[in-house]
Structure formats: structure tokens, C-alpha cells
């Protein structure tokens, strides 16, 4: 019997991650494997799939080749079927998940990798995940590659066909022009229905946007299936103004930030609020990038107020030029007393973050190379 040969263990409870020195136990593969940062993320995401989404081990394959034998470069982290029977019958899976170490920036290349694996397996959904960013995607198989849609989440294990259809139709991130256009539409609804001046109308729009962010964060944190920021939910509620009730919960959530006055209310008629919710409900404001939100606000405010409230915005190409001239570094402090939509601050932060992540990626690659060398050395010793 070879020395140090790991003994297969029975399935541990889903909330248990077993670590032994520089090894971690894979429940799905039933063996000890090197403990890398990416492997830790992967085993922790398995917990999420089991505990929060209700899938069991018999529905999931780990490190699965998706292009046939000998294609070591095309291994999906997780392939998830709707039922164990579908997996046994080798039917098309429901979801493919691609996990990365926390220090790795999930970018377009990772999204493309997830889409490629989903297309190879004919899965309708894929996930890109680490603890810094988790995003959910629907693949449009009737269209050419790169036709994907970002959606709110993936189906739970017991989701019905109707629930899956509703999931696909739910929240999508804003594109730049969409957000700016919708802000104008919301402003016009308030102006036409409530006859409010531009500043007062914008104040009410801001309140509703805070409600939306609050609901989205609660939805994501608790994996709720029902979106409270929806016309369907609000119309089911008993009361004079259910959107005002949501605003009071939002206000309480942000109490320590002192964004709202203690006695502040939503000053809109229920029908007006419902109309604005109808315009916004299918979009995901929380996951829309800060830059897109900032640019949309600049365009909206510029067209609506044209300097009436004393706000003028530096064009983005000039922001880019000026920040690159400063060449910000980690540990430095930036001060922008007239920050407006935060264009200078956001770009400063993004550039410093890119530097930090590049350095973290470099350190990770060095660590991974060392692990690979140690693994090869151990294998040579045991042979």
C-alpha cells in the first residue's frame, strides 16, 4: 500500500469543509486535493448550492470535462442538473458554474468562459463566482455566441417551469442609455401627475431609487424569491400606500447614514409610485456599475436642470486624462470637495483597485506555481 494515500471518506454534512494541512477534501470527487484559494471558493460555493438552493450531491458534477476526453483545458467547476435522473441519463444540465479565487478579477474573459461551457453542455444558465462578485447569466442558445442576458439569480432545485420563466424575465442590469432614459421617464411621470417642480420631482425619484436598492440588497442577502419592488407585490398589499411602507423600512435601514430626515415621507400618490415602480422593476440597480449610474445621473441632471441647481459635470474624457496625469497609487488620499456624481473619485478608486488586483493576481500565480511543483514532487515520490 502506497504511503500517504488519502482514504476516501463518506459524505460530510453540507456545512462541513474538511481541511488537512495544505489539502482540502472534495465531497463530490471524494478525495483530498491541494488547498488553493480557488479550491476554497469552489468548496464554499458547493455549500451555497446545497444549503441555499436545495441541490443535492447527486445532481452536481465537479471539475467535469465538457468537450470529451483529453480536453483538460475545458473543465467546468460545477455542472448542475435539474434532477439526479437527468444527470444519470446524461441529459443537458440546468446550470454551469465557474468559480475563481477571491484575488482574481472576474472579467469578460471569465464571462466568456462560463458562456462557452454553458453552450458546450446546452445549459440555459451559468454563474460566475467568487466572494467579490457573483453574477448570473442566461444563454440565448438560438443566437450566436456572446448573446447572453444577465439575470437576477439561478433557479432553486425545486423551481417549477413557471418560476424559471419568471426568473428569466426579472431583473437586468442597466445599460447607460437605458438608465438615463428611465430617469427622464420617471421625472415626466411625476411632473405630469403631480405637477411638481424639477427639484421636488428629483427628490422623490431619489427616494424610490433608495427603496429599490434596499429591496435588492435584502433579496440578495436572504435569497428571497419574491421581489417586493414590483407592481404585483404592491397591488397585493392591504393599505393606503404600500410603497410608503417600503420607504419607511428603507429609511430605518439607512438611519445611521442620516440620509433622510426622521419625519420624511414619500410625497407621491400611490398611483404615481406604482407607475414608477413599473418602469424600474425589471432592472437591477445594485449590480449596475457605479460609472454607468454616475454618467446617467450627469446626463439626466444636465438636461433637466441645465445648471439651475448649480451642478456642472466634467466630461468623462477629461476626468480620465486628469486622473491618469495624477497617476494615483495605493495609500494616497484623494479629495474632491465638489464631487458631484463622483466621477473623479470613482475613476481614482478603479485605477488603484486595478493595481492592487494585478499585484494580488501576480502573488497568486506565484503561489499556484509553487503548489503545482510540490504536487508534482509528491507524485514523483509516491511512484
If helices are DSSP runs of H or I spanning 4 or more residues, what is the number of helices?
12
Mean pLDDT, as a whole number?
A: 81
Tally of extended strands? 11
By CATH reckoning, the class of the largest domain would read Alpha Beta
CATH topology of the largest domain: tt1808, chain A
**What class, by secondary structure content?**
alpha+beta
Radius of gyration: 25 Å
Shape: globular
Query: What percent of residues adopt helix (DSSP H or I)?
Result: 40-55%
Sequence stretches where pLDDT stays below 50 over 5 or more residues: 1-14
For the record, give the distance between the C-alpha atoms at the N and C termini, rounded to a whole number.
12 Å
Tally of domains: 2
Strand order of the largest sheet: 4-5-6-7-8-9
CATH architecture of the largest domain: Alpha-Beta Complex
- Listing every helix as H and every strand as E from the N terminus to the C terminus, the arrangement reads EEEHEEHEHEEEHEHHHHHEHHH
Strand content: 5-15%
Assembly category: single chain
Largest sheet: 6 strands, mixed
How would you explain this protein's 3D organization?
The protein is an alpha+beta fold and about 375 residues long. It has 2 domains: about 150 residues, tt1808, chain A (Alpha-Beta Complex); about 140 residues. About 50% of the residues lie in helices and about 10% in strands. It contains 12 helices and 11 strands. The strands form 3 sheets. It has a 6-stranded mixed β-sheet with strand order 4-5-6-7-8-9, with helices on both faces. Strands 1-2-3 form a 3-stranded antiparallel β-sheet, with helices on one face. Strand 7 and strand 8 form a beta hairpin. Helix 5 packs across helix 6 and helix 5 packs antiparallel against helix 9. The chain is globular. The protein starts with 18 loop residues before the first strand and ends with a helix. The N terminus is likely disordered.
Amino acid at each position: 500500500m502506497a504511503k500517504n494515500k488519502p482514504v476516501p471518506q463518506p459524505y460530510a454534512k453540507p456545512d462541513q469543509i474538511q481541511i488537512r494541512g495544505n489539502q482540502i477534501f472534495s465531497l463530490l470527487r471524494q478525495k483530498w486535493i491541494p488547498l488553493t484559494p480557488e479550491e476554497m471558493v469552489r468548496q464554499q460555493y458547493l455549500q451555497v448550492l446545497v444549503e441555499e438552493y436545495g441541490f443535492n450531491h447527486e445532481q452536481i458534477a465537479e471539475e467535469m470535462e465538457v468537450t470529451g476526453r483529453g480536453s483538460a483545458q475545458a473543465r467546468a467547476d460545477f455542472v448542475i442538473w435539474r434532477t439526479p435522473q437527468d444527470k444519470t441519463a446524461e441529459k443537458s444540465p440546468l446550470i454551469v458554474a465557474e468559480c475563481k479565487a477571491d484575488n482574481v478579477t472576474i472579467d469578460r474573459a471569465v464571462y466568456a468562459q462560463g458562456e462557452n461551457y454553458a453552450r458546450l453542455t446546452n445549459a440555459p444558465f451559468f454563474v460566475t463566482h467568487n466572494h467579490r462578485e457573483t453574477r448570473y447569466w442566461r444563454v440565448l442558445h438560438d443566437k450566436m455566441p456572446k448573446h447572453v442576458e444577465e439575470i437576477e439569480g439561478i433557479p432553486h432545485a425545486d423551481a417549477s417551469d413557471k418560476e424559471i420563466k419568471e426568473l428569466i424575465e426579472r431583473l437586468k442590469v442597466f445599460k447607460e442609455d437605458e438608465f438615463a432614459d428611465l430617469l427622464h421617464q420617471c421625472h415626466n411621470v411625476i411632473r405630469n401627475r403631480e405637477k411638481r417642480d424639477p427639484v421636488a420631482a428629483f427628490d422623490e425619484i431619489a427616494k424610490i431609487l433608495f427603496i429599490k436598492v434596499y429591496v435588492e440588497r435584502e433579496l440578495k442577502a436572504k435569497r428571497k424569491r419574491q421581489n417586493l419592488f414590483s407592481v404585483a407585490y404592491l397591488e397585493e398589499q392591504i393599505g393606503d400606500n404600500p410603497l410608503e411602507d417600503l420607504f419607511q423600512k428603507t429609511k430605518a435601514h439607512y438611519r445611521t447614514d442620516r440620509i433622510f430626515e426622521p419625519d420624511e415621507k414619500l410625497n407621491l400618490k400611490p398611483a404615481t409610485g406604482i407607475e414608477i415602480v413599473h418602469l424600474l422593476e425589471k432592472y437591477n440597480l445594485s449590480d449596475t456599475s457605479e460609472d454607468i449610474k454616475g454618467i446617467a445621473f450627469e446626463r439626466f441632471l444636465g438636461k433637466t436642470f441645465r445648471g439651475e441647481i448649480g451642478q456642472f459635470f466634467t466630461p468623462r474624457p477629461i476626468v480620465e486624462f486628469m486622473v491618469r496625469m495624477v497617476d494615483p497609487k495605493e495609500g494616497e488620499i484623494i479629495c474632491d470637495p465638489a464631487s458631484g456624481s463622483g466621477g473623479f473619485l470613482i475613476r481614482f478608486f478603479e485605477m488603484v483597485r486595478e493595481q492592487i488586483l494585478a499585484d494580488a493576481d501576480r502573488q497568486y500565480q506565484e503561489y499556484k506555481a509553487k503548489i503545482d511543483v510540490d504536487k508534482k514532487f509528491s507524485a514523483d515520490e509516491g511512484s
